[in-house]
């Protein structure tokens, strides 16, 4: 860059002495001086700037949901209602309900009547709130009077709760009765009771593993030897 400036200066001076008046030369020299001093700060455009050395996996992003993925119009109306309640009341109960309305189906596990009865014992004056489905349990013969709010009830679960003198409420009815979540018990079903969860963990067959294997068949000749009996290597 400096060579270019010097070459430009010498050419300019030669032409100036022949064709340009002396008062114009002083102004031109001042311009050249400014150009040469500013050239130190110039960087060529072709130089590649160094990148950011990110940890494997890239930048961390927000992964939580801010809206439901479902296209269910009734669910979207509930989201609209509880967004309003969160904004206007500041209640932590409403913010938890809104967060759970966004969740996927796996994260909204169903809860059975037997578990509901167990959790609500001694809380007759309170409303059970489940962001999910309430299912029937045929092993339960006597059902107390329950007030339950849920996204969905199975047909038999609803019939048995109402027959016992209880109530099956929707979330818009709950918003009218308890806009701040007063006198409610927020419940969830067991998240890890899915059959798929039994296959998670240490590989099946290694010592101290209780992971369920993906077996071709459950007959006499399938996965019954090594790791299953002391006479065949070891027993897990």
Automatic annotation (TrEMBL):
Recall the GO molecular function terms of this protein's record.
Answer: mRNA binding; structural constituent of ribosome
Regions of biased composition (Basic residues) lie at 226-236
Instruction: Give the InterPro entries listed for this entry.
Output: Ribosomal_eL18, Ribosomal_uL15/eL18, Ribosomal_uL15/eL18_sf
Q: Which GO terms describe its cellular component?
A: cytosolic large ribosomal subunit
The record, for Pfam families, names: Ribosomal_L18 (PF17135)
What are the Large ribosomal subunit protein uL15/eL18 domain coordinates in residue numbering? 51-235
Q: Name one GO biological process term.
A: translation
Keywords, in A-Z order: Ribonucleoprotein, Ribosomal protein
**Stretch list, region Disordered:** 200-236
Report the superkingdom from the record.
Eukaryota
Family the UniProt entry places it in: Belongs to the eukaryotic ribosomal protein eL18 family.
Q: Which PANTHER family match?
A: 60S RIBOSOMAL PROTEIN L18 (PTHR10934), RIBOSOMAL PROTEIN L18E-RELATED (PTHR10934:SF23)
This chain's protein is named Large ribosomal subunit protein uL15/eL18 domain-containing protein
- Recorded source organism is Deinandra increscens subsp. villosa
